[in-house]
Amino acid sequence: MQIPLALGVQTGGSVIRPAAYCGIFAMKPTYNAIPTLGQKTVSSTLDTIGFFARSIPDLQLPADAFSLCDDQHPEKVCLRDVSIALVKTPMWSHAGPGTIHAMQKTAVILQNHGVRVEEVSLPDDFDDTDTLTRSQNAIIGAETALAFHEEYHSHKDDLDVSIRNLLENHFKHADAEKARREALDKLAHLRTVFNTIAAKYSVIIAPSAVDEAPMGLGDMGSPVFNTMWTWYTYLLSWG
Q1: By CB atoms within 10 Å of each CB, which of 24, 34, 189, 231 scores lowest?
Q2: In which band, very low, low, confident or very high, does the pLDDT at 236 lie, cut at 50, 70 and 90?
Q3: Could you say which of 1.10.287.3510, 3.50.50.60, 3.90.1300.10, 3.40.630.30 is the CATH number of the domain covering 5-238?
């Protein structure tokens, strides 16, 4: 590995997904744990600064530099006292053979070491992936339009075509801010549901990528497995 540490910003899945593709370690802290001052913000609700490193101990270095602290000092825990939820998520139908194998192997390794592993299905509130996607798009669309408003009106030809298209699509919808507020209300409801589930387990394991990285640089892969965790860490930080 040529670069021992790197920073990234996750709005959907731009930290944990590329780390999985590259076979390295990554950390996306709780929303707003690291100030975004000096960064061009895309979504004020979702943008979160995270780290890439070659090992878990190395992740501690940027965490210390940014003064990240646990709410409680970590203590040694007997493996037999650990309970793990294996959450495939409603997006499991998108999983390729690499992801399926990784999840199965993870469960076997943990169980062989005496860890209690339970496959957990999320409630019906989480099953409507189309609604979840629309909620994400409503938040990102409205906040990106605000973030790039000045640039669009002063020199829009210099913006990437994907940014221009997103802004222009947003400008066509007069009720965009209403959709954003409704999306945030939806996520607030899901927070309370998910909090009840999370309280039962020491750790939750879920897929970070659909499968192995796609070939070439033209496709960064789908963030379908990342979006809900970006939302939940935002919501849990306010819970």
Answers
A1: 189
A2: very low
A3: 3.90.1300.10
